Structure formats: structure tokens, C-alpha cells
């Protein structure tokens, strides 16, 4: 899958900078990786409700991190959204 290989490249770049492992971008990338793994798991196991709950929690964490990044640095937010191929959050 193209998306997973691209994420692994981003993760390798982030792992080279160990001091940045707490950065918002690194956390969003790792959450995105977990989300994609859980999504593929749930396609096989439709009634795994605990995994569904975990997925919703991770989605909420990623959403909050993206909202924070959007407020602090719009350019970095746009770049990250483009790299990860995820939709921009809805604004009210």
C-alpha cells in the first residue's frame, strides 16, 4: 500500500531525530499509523468493540493535536496534512 510505505518513510525520518519524538508531528504520524492498523484489523473483526473504542480514542487524540498545530503553525499543519493524505478538520 502506498500510504503505509509513505508513513514508514516519514517515521524513519522522525526516528533519526530522536529528540523530536515528542513533537506534535511525530505524535500525529504515529497516531495515524495506529489508526490505519486498527482500521484494517476492524475490517476483519467487525465485532471487536474494544478495538473500536481504542480507535475512537486515538482519533480524538489526533484531532486535538491537529487542532493545536493548526492554531500554532498553519504552514506546518498544511504540510503534515498533505504528507499523510488525511482530510482537513471541519471548521464551524
From TrEMBL:
Pfam family for this entry, one: Ribosomal_S15
Gene3D superfamilies, per database record: S15/NS1, RNA-binding
GO biological process per UniProt: translation
GO MF terms, alphabetically ordered: structural constituent of ribosome
Cell location: Plastid, Chloroplast
Similarity annotation: Belongs to the universal ribosomal protein uS15 family.
Protein name, UniProt field: Small ribosomal subunit protein uS15c
Source lineage: Eukaryota, Viridiplantae, Streptophyta, Embryophyta, Tracheophyta
Amino acid at each position: 500500500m502506498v500510504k503505509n510505505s509513505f508513513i514508514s518513510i516519514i517515521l524513519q525520518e522522525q526516528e533519526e531525530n530522536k529528540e523530536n519524538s515528542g513533537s506534535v508531528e511525530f505524535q500525529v504520524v504515529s497516531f495515524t499509523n495506529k489508526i490505519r492498523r486498527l482500521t484494517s484489523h476492524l475490517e476483519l473483526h467487525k465485532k471487536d468493540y474494544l478495538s473500536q473504542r481504542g480507535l475512537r480514542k486515538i482519533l480524538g487524540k489526533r484531532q486535538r493535536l491537529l487542532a493545536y498545530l493548526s492554531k500554532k503553525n498553519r504552514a506546518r499543519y498544511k504540510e503534515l496534512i498533505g504528507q499523510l493524505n488525511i482530510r482537513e478538520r471541519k471548521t464551524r
